[in-house]
Amino acid sequence: MNGNRLNSDWNDDILKLLSKEELDNFRKIKFEKGEIIYAQKIRFMILLKGKLKISFLCGAREFVLNFLKKGSFVVQSSDATIEALESSEVVEINVADVRRLFGNEAFSMSMMNALLRNILAQRKLIYDMYFRTSEDRLRSFLIELAKEREERVINLPFTISNLSMLCGSPRQNISTAFNKFVKNGEIEKVGKQKYKINFAES
Protein backbone atom coordinates (compact mmCIF):
# COMPACT_ATOMS: atom_id res chain seq x y z
CA MET A 1 0.00 0.00 0.00
CA ASN A 2 1.50 3.31 -1.14
CA GLY A 3 1.75 6.06 1.47
CA ASN A 4 2.83 8.83 -0.86
CA ARG A 5 1.15 12.15 -0.04
CA LEU A 6 0.70 12.83 -3.76
CA ASN A 7 -1.05 9.52 -4.34
CA SER A 8 -4.29 9.59 -2.34
CA ASP A 9 -6.48 6.52 -2.64
CA TRP A 10 -9.05 7.79 -5.10
CA ASN A 11 -11.86 6.52 -7.24
CA ASP A 12 -13.35 8.39 -10.20
CA ASP A 13 -16.74 6.75 -9.56
CA ILE A 14 -16.75 6.93 -5.76
CA LEU A 15 -20.26 8.40 -5.63
CA LYS A 16 -21.57 5.53 -7.77
CA LEU A 17 -20.98 3.34 -4.73
CA LEU A 18 -23.71 5.26 -2.89
CA SER A 19 -27.46 4.95 -3.22
CA LYS A 20 -29.69 8.00 -3.79
CA GLU A 21 -30.72 7.90 -0.13
CA GLU A 22 -27.08 7.87 0.96
CA LEU A 23 -26.23 10.72 -1.42
CA ASP A 24 -28.95 12.80 0.20
CA ASN A 25 -26.69 13.06 3.27
CA PHE A 26 -24.22 15.15 1.23
CA ARG A 27 -24.33 18.78 0.14
CA LYS A 28 -22.48 20.10 -2.93
CA ILE A 29 -20.03 23.03 -2.61
CA LYS A 30 -18.02 24.85 -5.29
CA PHE A 31 -14.67 26.58 -4.79
CA GLU A 32 -13.13 29.08 -7.20
CA LYS A 33 -9.46 28.92 -8.18
CA GLY A 34 -7.33 30.60 -5.52
CA GLU A 35 -10.06 30.42 -2.87
CA ILE A 36 -8.82 29.68 0.66
CA ILE A 37 -11.08 27.45 2.76
CA TYR A 38 -11.07 27.45 6.56
CA ALA A 39 -12.86 25.17 9.01
CA GLN A 40 -14.31 25.90 12.44
CA LYS A 41 -14.73 22.17 13.07
CA ILE A 42 -13.73 18.93 11.39
CA ARG A 43 -15.05 18.71 7.83
CA PHE A 44 -15.41 15.55 5.73
CA MET A 45 -15.59 15.99 1.96
CA ILE A 46 -15.09 14.13 -1.31
CA LEU A 47 -13.45 16.01 -4.17
CA LEU A 48 -15.58 15.61 -7.32
CA LYS A 49 -13.46 17.71 -9.67
CA GLY A 50 -10.52 20.09 -9.56
CA LYS A 51 -7.41 20.12 -7.39
CA LEU A 52 -6.94 21.18 -3.77
CA LYS A 53 -3.93 21.73 -1.51
CA ILE A 54 -4.21 21.23 2.25
CA SER A 55 -1.59 22.92 4.43
CA PHE A 56 -0.59 24.24 7.81
CA LEU A 57 0.01 28.00 7.81
CA CYS A 58 1.94 29.97 10.43
CA GLY A 59 2.51 33.58 9.46
CA ALA A 60 4.42 33.56 6.17
CA ARG A 61 5.42 29.91 6.58
CA GLU A 62 3.51 27.05 4.96
CA PHE A 63 3.82 23.29 5.24
CA VAL A 64 1.99 21.26 2.60
CA LEU A 65 0.25 18.18 3.94
CA ASN A 66 -1.19 16.92 0.68
CA PHE A 67 -2.20 17.70 -2.87
CA LEU A 68 -5.68 16.32 -3.53
CA LYS A 69 -7.18 15.22 -6.82
CA LYS A 70 -10.54 14.06 -8.11
CA GLY A 71 -12.06 11.31 -5.95
CA SER A 72 -9.95 12.08 -2.87
CA PHE A 73 -11.44 11.96 0.61
CA VAL A 74 -10.78 15.30 2.30
CA VAL A 75 -10.63 15.66 6.08
CA GLN A 76 -10.04 19.23 7.24
CA SER A 77 -9.50 20.33 10.84
CA SER A 78 -9.53 23.87 12.21
CA ASP A 79 -5.71 24.09 12.16
CA ALA A 80 -5.43 23.33 8.44
CA THR A 81 -6.29 25.46 5.40
CA ILE A 82 -7.31 24.33 1.95
CA GLU A 83 -6.51 26.21 -1.25
CA ALA A 84 -8.31 25.54 -4.52
CA LEU A 85 -5.56 25.19 -7.15
CA GLU A 86 -8.25 25.30 -9.83
CA SER A 87 -12.03 25.59 -9.89
CA SER A 88 -13.18 22.68 -7.77
CA GLU A 89 -16.31 20.96 -6.56
CA VAL A 90 -16.82 18.83 -3.45
CA VAL A 91 -19.62 17.09 -1.62
CA GLU A 92 -19.61 17.44 2.16
CA ILE A 93 -21.27 15.44 4.92
CA ASN A 94 -21.44 16.12 8.64
CA VAL A 95 -18.91 13.95 10.47
CA ALA A 96 -21.66 12.65 12.75
CA ASP A 97 -23.59 11.43 9.69
CA VAL A 98 -20.70 9.44 8.19
CA ARG A 99 -21.72 6.46 10.36
CA ARG A 100 -24.87 6.16 8.24
CA LEU A 101 -22.66 5.05 5.34
CA PHE A 102 -20.86 2.26 7.21
CA GLY A 103 -23.45 -0.27 6.06
CA ASN A 104 -22.25 0.27 2.49
CA GLU A 105 -19.35 -2.19 2.31
CA ALA A 106 -17.82 -0.95 -0.97
CA PHE A 107 -17.86 2.69 0.13
CA SER A 108 -16.58 1.83 3.62
CA MET A 109 -13.65 -0.16 2.18
CA SER A 110 -12.76 2.68 -0.18
CA MET A 111 -12.81 5.14 2.72
CA MET A 112 -10.79 2.77 4.93
CA ASN A 113 -8.13 2.36 2.25
CA ALA A 114 -7.87 6.12 1.90
CA LEU A 115 -7.49 6.56 5.67
CA LEU A 116 -4.83 3.84 5.87
CA ARG A 117 -2.86 5.44 3.05
CA ASN A 118 -3.08 8.78 4.79
CA ILE A 119 -1.84 7.30 8.08
CA LEU A 120 1.12 5.67 6.30
CA ALA A 121 1.95 8.94 4.55
CA GLN A 122 1.84 10.90 7.80
CA ARG A 123 4.02 8.34 9.59
CA LYS A 124 6.58 8.47 6.79
CA LEU A 125 6.52 12.26 6.96
CA ILE A 126 7.18 12.24 10.73
CA TYR A 127 9.99 9.70 10.30
CA ASP A 128 11.64 11.74 7.54
CA MET A 129 11.45 15.00 9.47
CA TYR A 130 12.88 13.49 12.64
CA PHE A 131 15.57 11.17 11.29
CA ARG A 132 16.53 12.44 7.82
CA THR A 133 18.44 15.44 6.51
CA SER A 134 16.95 17.83 3.97
CA GLU A 135 18.95 16.10 1.23
CA ASP A 136 17.66 12.67 2.26
CA ARG A 137 14.07 13.95 2.40
CA LEU A 138 14.27 15.36 -1.11
CA ARG A 139 15.86 12.17 -2.44
CA SER A 140 13.15 10.07 -0.78
CA PHE A 141 10.40 12.31 -2.16
CA LEU A 142 11.71 12.07 -5.74
CA ILE A 143 12.18 8.30 -5.53
CA GLU A 144 8.63 7.83 -4.21
CA LEU A 145 7.30 10.05 -7.00
CA ALA A 146 9.12 7.93 -9.61
CA LYS A 147 7.77 4.73 -8.01
CA GLU A 148 4.24 6.12 -8.10
CA ARG A 149 4.58 6.95 -11.81
CA GLU A 150 6.32 3.58 -12.39
CA GLU A 151 8.89 5.27 -14.62
CA ARG A 152 12.20 7.08 -14.22
CA VAL A 153 11.18 10.16 -16.22
CA ILE A 154 8.70 12.17 -14.17
CA ASN A 155 6.86 15.44 -14.49
CA LEU A 156 7.91 17.75 -11.66
CA PRO A 157 5.53 20.74 -11.65
CA PHE A 158 6.92 22.15 -8.41
CA THR A 159 9.06 25.17 -7.68
CA ILE A 160 11.90 24.90 -5.17
CA SER A 161 9.60 26.67 -2.69
CA ASN A 162 6.91 24.01 -3.26
CA LEU A 163 9.46 21.23 -2.76
CA SER A 164 10.70 22.82 0.46
CA MET A 165 7.13 22.96 1.79
CA LEU A 166 6.53 19.33 0.83
CA CYS A 167 9.79 18.16 2.41
CA GLY A 168 9.47 20.34 5.51
CA SER A 169 12.91 21.86 4.97
CA PRO A 170 14.23 25.41 4.44
CA ARG A 171 14.14 26.55 0.83
CA GLN A 172 17.91 27.09 0.70
CA ASN A 173 18.61 23.54 1.90
CA ILE A 174 16.33 22.03 -0.76
CA SER A 175 17.78 24.28 -3.46
CA THR A 176 21.32 23.21 -2.53
CA ALA A 177 20.35 19.53 -2.49
CA PHE A 178 18.48 19.75 -5.82
CA ASN A 179 21.42 21.47 -7.55
CA LYS A 180 23.78 18.85 -6.09
CA PHE A 181 21.64 16.03 -7.51
CA VAL A 182 21.68 17.69 -10.94
CA LYS A 183 25.44 18.24 -10.82
CA ASN A 184 26.06 14.62 -9.79
CA GLY A 185 23.75 13.30 -12.50
CA GLU A 186 21.39 11.76 -9.93
CA ILE A 187 18.57 13.70 -11.58
CA GLU A 188 18.68 14.87 -15.19
CA LYS A 189 16.48 17.48 -16.86
CA VAL A 190 15.09 16.04 -20.09
CA GLY A 191 12.37 18.57 -20.91
CA LYS A 192 10.15 21.30 -19.51
CA GLN A 193 9.39 20.25 -15.92
CA LYS A 194 10.56 16.73 -16.82
CA TYR A 195 13.38 14.99 -15.00
CA LYS A 196 14.96 11.57 -15.21
CA ILE A 197 15.52 10.02 -11.78
CA ASN A 198 18.86 8.19 -11.65
CA PHE A 199 19.16 7.41 -7.94
CA ALA A 200 20.42 3.88 -7.38
CA GLU A 201 17.49 3.21 -5.00
CA SER A 202 14.89 4.06 -7.64
Show the helix and strand layout.
Elements lengths: L19 H4 L3 E5 L4 E2 L5 E7 L2 E7 L2 E8 L4 E4 L4 E4 L3 E6 L11 H27 L2 H16 L3 E3 L4 H8 L3 H14 L2 E5 L2 E4 L5
Antiparallel strand pairs: 1-8, 2-7, 3-6, 3-8, 4-5, 4-7, 9-11, 10-11
Helix pairs in contact: 4-5
Overall shape: it is elongated
Total strands: the figure is 11
Radius of gyration: 18 Å
Helical run tally = 5
- Looking across the biggest beta sheet, what order are the strands in? 1-8-3-6
- Largest sheet, strands/sense/barrel: 4 strands, antiparallel
Mean of residue pLDDT values: 86
Helical amount? 25-40%
% residues in beta strands: 25-35%
Look at the helices and sheets and give the structural class.
alpha+beta
Instruction: List segments where confidence is low: pLDDT < 50 over at least 5 consecutive residues.
Output: none
Whole-Å distance between the termini?
17 Å
Q: From N to C, what is the helix and strand string?
A: HEEEEEEEEHHEHHEE
